[in-house]
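Q:
Got a chain?
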Amino acid sequence: MERLIFMNKLRFIYLGLMFILQSPSFAQNTYSEYKGKVVDAINNRALEYVSLNVLETNISTVTNSEGEFLLKVPQAYKDSKIVVALLGYTKKVINLADLSENISVIKLEEAYTELKEVNVSAFKDADKLVRKVFTEKSKTIQNQSVYMTAFYRETIKRRNRNVSLTEAVVNIIKQPYTSANRDAVKLGKARKSTDYKRLDTVSLKLQGGPFSTLYLDIMKYPEYIFTEESFDTYRFSFDAPTTVNNRNVYVVDFKPRNKTLDLSYFGKLYIDVETLALVSASYLLDVSNKGKSRNLLVKRKPRDIVVYPLEAKYKVDYKQNRGKWYYSYSNLSLKFKVNKKREIFNKVYTLSSEMAVTDWELNADDIKIKNKDKLRPTVIITDAISGFSDPDFWGEYNLIEPDKSIESAIEKIRKNIKKEQEKNSLP
C-alpha cells in the first residue's frame, strides 16, 4: 500500500516530459486543411474533446475547448470520409469533400440510451465488472507495439492570464499493454515560451510535460489508480448507460469508501458493453482535506511557501480499431493556490496539459529509439520561442486548434520577437 501511495504521488508531483517524431504516413505528402467547429444540434453549444478520424486510416484530431478543429489530410485520402464522435452523442460520418474550404459547422445529436437496451443485469456487481476490465485487458486492448504520433500542449496560467505555453509533436513507441516495458519517447518538433516575471519562479518551480498525460493511460499504468491493493478502497456503482460511437456503454461511478486514505479519487468509468473494454475515464483527486493535500502538486519549493491544491481533474479516452482498443487522448488540469509568508495576497496557478494521438501504425517492433535519444520524464523543453513567429512551423502535422486565449498569448510572443529584432537591428 505504501508503494501505491508513493507511485500515486509521483504522478502529480513529478510531471515529466516526452516528445516524438513525425509519423511515416505523412512523409513527403502534400495535404489539405479542413477547419471547422462541432456544436450541439439543439443549443449550438460548442463541444470539446470531439474526435475526428479519417475513415479507414489512423489520422485524427480533437476539438479544443471552443469546439474548433483543424484536420490535415494527405491528398491520397481527399475522397475519404471522417467520423465525428463524442461520448454521449450519436456519431456522424461526413464526406471530406462536403466540408467547406473555410469554416464548417458540424452538429451532433445527443444519444439517448434506454436502460432496457443495455443488459446491466449481466453485471449486477459494478465492482466485479471493473475488476474484469483490468484483469482481462489482454482480450480487448492491443497486444503489440504501436508507433504513435501525438500532439502535446501545456499551458500555465496565473489567475486567468497565460504565463507559459509549450507545444510539441511527439512520437511514442507504445509498448503492449501486457508488457512490463515502459513506453519510449523522442522529441520531434517543439516550441515554448514562458513569462518568468508573471510565473514568479522565485516562489515556485513548475514542471510539466507529455509524460504527465501519458501516465493517464490507466490501462498501461494501472498502478497510478487501480491495483489489486487499491480496488478494495473504492465503492463502485452503476449510473445510467450511454453510447460512444453508437455503441452501448456501461457507466460506473467510483468513490473512496472512507476519507482516511492519503490520496482519494472519484469519477466515472465508461465500459463498452460488447467488449468490456475501457472506453473513457474522467475523475478527480479529492483535495477537500487541506492538511493531507498541502504541497502535493509541487516538486520543489522554498520553505516559506505552502501550496494548496484547489482542483485536480483527469481524463483519458481510448479508440477502437479492428476489434482492439488503443490509447487516444488524455488531459489533466491542476489548479492550486500558493501562499507565501509575509505576503498579503496569494497566487493561483493552473497547469493544463493535453495529448492527442494523431496517427499511428501497428507492428512497430522494428522501429527503435536509441537510448541516447530517449527522453526521461524529468526532461523539460528548452525555452525556444522561434516557432511562434513561423506560421508554417507545424507543416503537415495534425494538432489541436489553439483556444482564443492561447492565440492571444502567441500573438504577444510574436510582437515581442519583432520588438527584439528591431532593437537588435539598430546601429
The first strand starts at residue 31 and ends at 40.
